[in-house]
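Internal tracking record. Fields below are filled automatically when a chain is submitted to the structure queue. Please do not edit lines marked as system-generated. If the sequence contains nonstandard residues, flag them in the REMARKS field before resubmitting.
Queue: standard
Priority: normal
Entity type: single polypeptide chain
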Amino acid sequence: MMMIRFANGNLSVRRALLLATILTAGSCGLWAQAGPPAGAPNGQMRQRGAGGVERELAQLTGVLSLTPDQQPQIKGVLEERRGKMEALRANGAQPTREQMEGIRKDTDAKINALLTDDQKAKFADWQKQRMEHRRGPGGDGPPPPPPSAPPNA
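SYSTEM-GENERATED OUTPUT FOLLOWS
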């Protein structure tokens, strides 16, 4: 290992090198912890698709006590929803709120058709909790209107 020897008069050079070393090490640590860049291909990003369906099915199974017969049926409905959402995004445009809401309502109706009366009540409660969680505290009402444009003076 090679050592660099500095004369006593080069204290500022030693401090600068020490600071550069610390900054480099810190930057490397932050870079290693960062996720993939925003434009990374799908293989390098967390995907919404398959993991989302499995995760939601596991949630519904726990919340609704789905039977082994219901689980593949519900999974099929969730996968159908995922396919519809992917088809909307396929052209590169952002789906509208109305389009997504229509797909969600269709999915909810299909899931409801597969549930018992007790499970339907639990499903409704679960959905209500999810909506409250999305809106935040005190989110009973509709979302606030968009800010108005300042008047041109």
